[in-house]
Design a protein that fits this description.
Helix content is about 30%, strand content about 25%. A 5-stranded antiparallel beta sheet has the order 6-7-13-11-12. Strand 9 and strand 10 form a beta hairpin. The protein is globular, with a radius of gyration of 19 Å. About 45% of the residues are buried.
Length: about 300
């Protein structure tokens, strides 16, 4: 790893450090170190980083704002690429916007709503990046990224870059092509919105933000919704009906405000969270016969 570290540092691709604590880069404030941590300064630097990583044959993964991520206590081996300040550009051309993969989704909804553009109100309060939202097909309030995405600029691990349409990204519930079928990084996204009444758009966005603030535990570190909704059921409702709200293992606790959230009470480890997830799965299956699947991405746990 020393060799690849030197290559990345010599290439001057941006921030390159060893053993960066990933607890600093996840919203649940949990996670061991990244063996090598890179925050590229531009799309070009990200391409250089990927080329170097691919040539070296070391494992890699990309992260955004860490809002849907649980990193193991042992950290992540290989290279962790963070989409940050170098990929947070924004261009507005009428009703079409182009946003960098590292652009804050919450900031984007605020900026766009003030310009009287409608279509992103559903994302009000979703703490993540544009790239992460495309990767996960983030959604709420009956809409998601697939409804507004025209195309996304993707960097694949073989170094190729392609623009893929929403159809080509094979979106489904909190899923896209990029998760397993063809791993890649969303560099930027082109979204098609609609002109609307500025006051009404801002009011709807604020309503959605207030709803999240009132129903979800954003005053404690968490990783967002832990489980996918096993439709026609809802994960939070099943957890509540099973009497699990407030249940705690170590420093990890099921939120008393919303059953589908696990909060870090201050000293939680990834193991605490995983043990709690397993306990919920077992309990829900025993009580309701429903198999729960995680929505949160779990990485590096057994390494």
């Amino acid at each position: 790893m020393e060799k690849i570290l030197m290559k990345l540092q010599e290439a001057e691709v941006g921030k390159v450090v060893q053993n960066e604590p990933l607890a600093k880069h996840t919203t649940i404030k949990i996670g061991g170190p990244a063996e090598i941590f890179v925050e590229p300064s531009s799309i070009e630097d990200l391409k250089k980083t990927m080329d170097t990583v691919t040539e070296s044959g070391v494992p890699w993964r990309a992260i955004g704002r860490g809002s849907n991520l649980l990193v193991g206590d042992s950290g992540i081996k290989g290279v962790v690429i963070k989409l940050g300040k170098g990929l947070d550009h924004l261009e507005v051309d009428g009703e079409t916007i182009t946003a960098g993969g590292g652009y804050s989704l919450i900031k984007l909804t605020t900026v766009i709503s003030k310009q009287g553009l409608s279509g992103l109100q559903f994302a009000g309060g979703i703490p993540g990046s544009v790239g992460g939202a495309v990767y996960m097909n983030a959604g709420a309030h009956g809409s998601d990224m697939s409804k507004i995405l025209v195309k996304a600029h993707i960097l694949f691990e073989d170094g190729t870059m392609e623009w893929l349409t929403a159809e080509e990204l094979e979106f489904s519930y909190r899923t896209s092509l990029l998760q397993k079928k063809r791993p890649g990084i969303c560099l930027e996204a082109v979204l098609k919105l609609e002109k609307g009444n500025r006051e009404e758009i801002v009011a709807e966005l604020q309503k959605n933000k207030d709803y999240r603030r009132e129903t979800q535990p954003w005053d404690h570190p968490n990783c967002g919704s832990v489980f996918r909704n096993p439709l026609p059921h809802y994960a939070g409702q099943l957890i509540q009906e099973s009497g699990l709200k407030g249940y705690q293992i170590g420093g990890a606790k099921i939120s008393e405000l919303h059953g589908n959230f696990i909060v870090n009470t201050g000293n939680a480890t990834a193991k605490d969270v995983l043990d709690l997830i397993d306990f919920v799965k077992k309990t829900i299956y025993e009580k309701h016969g429903v198999k729960m699947e995680t929505e949160v991405e779990i990485v590096g746990v057994n390494e």
